[in-house]
Amino acid sequence: DLFWVGILMAVCSFMGLPWYVAATVISIAHIDSLKMETETSAPGEQPQFLGVREQRVTGIIVFVLTGISVFLAPILKYIPMPVLYGVFLYMGVASLNGIQFWDRCKLFLMPAKHQPDYVFLRHVPLRRIHLFTLVQIVCLAILWILKSTVAAIIFPVMILALILVRRLLDFVFSQHDLAWIDNIIPEKEKKKEDDKKKKKK
């Protein structure tokens, strides 16, 4: 999705058309819906990841319906805004589950004895995790403030500036720490690999 958004942004820039926006909540909800897991009924038992239902139908239908909604404006205007905000709020909150940044944010308010067995907690000291999370929160707050002011026009430049921030973190954190708290490998996969290493030992 992001690949096509990138191409279409370049095309729209040359043609003077409005830019596309990568809808994060919709994208996360769509990816989550494609995930296949085992059905568990035992309390506390985590579902096992089985694979991905690879298809493009839902994505196409979503964007076709989004396009049709332009012509349904006279009808859609009767839907109260609080209802729409409620739907998007629900989708956003439902999509937070399993995002490592959100898991690390919850650790600020969680006593050590109640902390889940996150794999990054096994390898990185808690104070280092909190520091990394605080940096991310500050960056998010700055982006949010910029987006909400007249300076919103430089928002894409600030997104690029995050690359510089990430490079500067290499001087603050060790590569070992960053490998566990800032890695593209999913939490479940890293946990499986870590458990296998422990069993071999």
TrEMBL record:
Keyword Thylakoid: no
PANTHER family according to UniProt: ANION EXCHANGE PROTEIN, ELECTROGENIC SODIUM BICARBONATE COTRANSPORTER 4
Pfam family, one: HCO3_cotransp
Membrane topology per record: Multi-pass membrane protein
Source species of the chain: Tauraco erythrolophus
Domain Bicarbonate transporter-like transmembrane as annotated: residue spans: 1-185
Residue intervals passing through the bilayer: 6-29, 57-76, 82-102, 152-169
Primary residence: membrane
Subcellular localization, as worded in the UniProt entry: Membrane
Signal peptide coordinates: none
One cellular component (GO) term of this entry: plasma membrane
Molecular function in Gene Ontology: sodium:bicarbonate symporter activity; solute:inorganic anion antiporter activity
Protein name stated in the entry: Electrogenic sodium bicarbonate cotransporter 4
InterPro entries in the cross-refs: HCO3_transpt-like_TM_dom, HCO3_transpt_euk
GO-annotated biological processes: monoatomic anion transport; regulation of intracellular pH
Keywords, comma-separated and alphabetical: Membrane, Transmembrane, Transmembrane helix
